[in-house]
Amino acid sequence: MEHKDYFQKVFDVTCMIPEERVTNYGAIADFLALGSARMVGWALNKCSLSEIKVPAHRVLNRKGELSGRNAFPTPTLMQERLEAEGIEVVDNTVINFKDLFWHPENILKNG
DNA sequence: CCAATGACGACTT
DNA sequence: GAAGTCGCCATTG
Length: 111
Description:
By secondary structure, the protein is mainly α. It has a single domain, classed as Arc Repressor Mutant, subunit A, CATH 1.10.10.10. Helix content is 43%, strand content 7%. The chain has a two-stranded parallel sheet with strand order 1-2. The protein has a two-stranded antiparallel sheet with strand order 3-4. Helix 2 crosses helix 3 (37-45). The model has no long low-confidence stretch (mean pLDDT 90). The chain binds a DNA duplex (13 and 13 nucleotides) through helix 2, helix 3 and strand 2.
């Protein structure tokens, strides 16, 4: 299971996402140089199998839609998680997505 | 091995 | 600017 590290990378970055902030698959893929956002989603889909708690609900697609809501125990859990953090969600889409958008590279900027 | 799929994204028309 | 098309790469059939 060498790809386990692959998950770890994605999980690690996902866990770095601050509250009140969200990101998209492409940003993580770009930061980890995975080459494809699909791989990020693929890894996050497995996050439920991981022992690590991952705020996967903070990861959305480029349009800010909760594309992965169906992968949660309940399709509404993802939205509830976001709303619990003060993020407004309507029609499976995060409001002010571009304003809440956060890029993993910010980790390096802030140290 | 070939074909199809997926929590996507960028490019082209 | 919306809709359509291709690329991405690992998994599954």
